[in-house]
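Hey,
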Amino acid sequence: MSSGRNASSWSQSSAIAELLQQAEQKDGLRDTLREILQQPETWRETVSRLKAALPQYTAILDGLQAVVLTGSGSSEYAAECARTAFQRLFPVTAQSIGSGALLTDSISMLPQSRPALMIHFARSGDSPESAGALQAMLHDDARIRQLAITCNAEGKLAKAAATDGRLKALTLDARTNDHSLVMTSSFTNMVLAAIGMASHADAEAYVSSAEKLATAAETILTKAFESFNTPSLQTCSRVFYLADPATFGAAREAALKMTEMTAGRVMTVAETYLGLRHGPMSAIHKDAVIVCFLSADPLARAYEEDLIRELNAKQLGAAKIFIGSAVPHDLVQKQDIVIANEVFSQTSVAFHSLLHVAAGQVLAFYRCLHEGLKPDAPSESGVINRVVQKFQLHGAAAE
């Protein structure tokens, strides 16, 4: 893949150049800003690394009847995004299950088909759920193959793979082990690596699509940084993230980014377009922003556009953000922002969550600054930490 945009070339955007200058002058935003901006470059590195490593994973991918993807917090939403890739590109029955659910309900949560593969997503690989869920699965069913995708070569999961033959690990570039409290480049790179696993039968198509994605991300990030620092977006008290089921993990992750980076000062809701009518629409007040992750599928898009027209007719919300391709002009009102890119119609939906999430990161980043918080450590009282603090494990997870 091509080398893409280097860090200094972001200065061609006045908004990004100003933020980079601020980052040099004061603490608190340097890591998060760098980690958001490094995504196109690190995506290219992840693709190269994954393509070279694929032969090592042939045995665990061969003959699978089911795939289970797991993680905690953002890593759980990464699993949800990657599920679409395995369902669409592998294809195989795929299910995403939170690591916490595996700790409490264990084997009852799993599909019955064997052989199965469980993929553990973990930025650090050191959270209690990560280690506990792996231990519980190794104890409960040896017929489930175990793979960790992690950003930390020194974490518990990566080290376990080096000593336990029942576990394999794919460790990504050290740059993706985000220093910020919030996950940004770690999230998207882990999802992209999993998509590569799902695409192992056609690696060249994966490389081609990922390059289009990285190029589009450079444009989308630039547009987001230039467009999202507006009064209507930065003074809202609630944000709704809408997506179809295939990209719903992206809506959940974007909502979590806003919650984390504003220390909960902004109310967030992640919902499907069709689910919004069943109660959540009542919470879209005049100060709400509605983020519309648009599908490229004609059938899904028809339902989405109907819902958006209903929102417009009812005059709900302060502004909308549209992210997708071929956005109809009649949907867009004066206060709305459109980030359109044809990459959504040129690539599989399996890739689209990465672009949705990247745009969501920028929206949360700006709102964090507006609240007077530090994006690198927005939880001023230390309520949450970069790695979840140790807690008591029970049952097989504690063995």
